[in-house]
Design goal:
The complex is a heterodimer of chains A (168) and B (183).
Chain A: E1 19-25, E2 31-36, H1 46-66, E3 69-70, E4 84-89, E5 92-98, E6 104-109, H2 116-132, H3 146-160
Antiparallel strand pairs in A: 1-2, 1-6, 4-5, 5-6
Chain B: E1 6-7, E2 22-28, E3 34-39, H1 48-79, E4 90-95, E5 99-104, E6 110-115, H2 134-151, H3 168-177
Antiparallel strand pairs in B: 2-3, 2-6, 4-5, 5-6
The chains are: A alpha+beta (168), B alpha+beta (183).
Protein name (chain B): Trafficking protein particle complex subunit
Keywords (chain B): Endoplasmic reticulum, ER-Golgi transport, Golgi apparatus, Transport
GO cellular component, one term (chain B): Golgi apparatus
Chain lengths: 168, 183
């Protein structure tokens, strides 16, 4: 169901779709980064985010275990452990990308948002560029990097506006 | 991307295993008790002794599935933006190996279906030829098959019910076999 304002034809501007949140979870399950990506992101307290990060970390692994089907060696095509890749719910799509080192990039968005996987991969690239190459950022610790934050913001803004830059 | 998932259901030796699109179906009540479960994938048969161990393992696995559905629903509920009229429930969970589709009723009953990750319609049907989407099918299984066969059965007991005394299972099999994505 789309959220339509009366009197307007559905254009990209007023159909409910947009990014909500970005989480980055380290390999021990601790939340190292979280950022609301759009105006519709629900306000959640920091403690709640931390709790959600660990919960998701465990559920990611449990999902692979509970599934009666298994990938060979439980590794997916990227060499990382298999786990939740996507969750679809009534008002939400959640996509997760886990790297070989166990870092999970989780992004939530409203249903109908295009290019969620593309944005997720791009954020991984930004993470490598801005965070890993920064000598002041410690691995597995909360990320405090204004460069990374502004890069993420401008990426989301660029994709949301539909600038047409969408490599396939 | 080619799905190379193999069912590692309790097997003792690798023999020829057929992979169907739909692997298994579970129905849970609001407390997590399994009301009905059925496996559709063909697998390797075992001896009577291993079957006993398999049963326990399967029961543990089902508890995992229920717990996961329960916790994910909580999480998704707090992450989703406020929007009145929106369905707050969990629709599907996809891992690299397979997808779990979930339909929840207001009374807390959950119909959960495990499938492979082949591209099949999940929420809306793409054309008449592809049949109803999985979500619509799960809904039909509850509202038409379960309610008609089980809840309306004169032998219905709300706590402990023998499903095999109703004709739910044959109806379910017939319905699923008619689905083009059932394989």
């Amino acid at each position: 169901p789309c959220k339509l304002q009366t009197g307007l034809t559905p254009t990209r501007a007023n159909i409910a779709m947009g990014f909500l949140h970005l989480f980055i979870i380290n390999k021990s399950g601790g939340l190292i980064y979280n950022r609301p990506l759009g105006p519709k992101a629900p306000q959640i307290g920091t403690n709640e985010f931390l709790r959600m990060g660990s919960t998701f970390h465990s559920l990611h692994a449990i999902a692979a275990e509970a599934c009666p089907l298994r990938l060979p060696g439980n590794k997916n095509e990227y060499g990382a452990d298999d786990g939740i890749e996507e969750i679809q719910a009534g008002g939400l799509i959640l996509k997760c990308f886990q790297t070989r080192t166990g870092v999970k990039f989780v992004i939530t968005a409203e249903p109908g948002t295009p290019d969620i996987s593309y944005v997720l991969k791009e954020i991984y690239v930004l993470y490598a560029e801005c965070t890993l190459k920064d000598p002041f950022v410690e691995l597995e610790m909360p990320i405090r990097s204004p460069l990374f934050t502004s890069a993420v913001d401008s990426l989301v803004e660029r994709v949301d506006k539909g600038s047409g830059y969408r490599p396939r | 991307k080619h799905n190379s998932a193999l069912p590692i259901y309790p097997t003792n030796s690798i023999q020829s295993i057929d992979i169907m699109a739909v692997h298994s179906l579970h129905i849970f009540d609001r407390r997590g008790k399994t009301l009905f479960t059925k496996r559709y994938a063909r697998g390797v048969g075992g001896s009577a002794a291993t079957k006993q161990a398999d049963e326990e393992k399967l029961s543990e696995q089902r508890k995992l599935v229920f717990g996961m559905l329960f916790s994910l629903r909580e999480m998704v509920g707090s992450l989703a933006p406020e929007h009145k009229g929106r369905d707050p429930g969990l629709h599907s969970v996809r891992t690299g190996a397979g997808t779990l589709h979930n339909y929840e009723t207001v009374s807390g009953m959950r119909v959960a279906l495990y499938c492979t990750n082949d591209p099949i319609p999940t929420t809306t049907p793409t054309s008449a030829a592809t049949g109803p989407s999985i979500r619509q099918a799960l809904r039909h299984i509850y509202t038409d098959l379960w309610v008609d066969s089980v809840v309306r059965s004169p032998l219905y007991r709300s706590n402990d019910m023998d499903i095999s005394s109703t004709n739910f299972e044959p109806k379910l099999d017939a319905y699923l076999n008619a689905m083009p994505w059932f394989k």
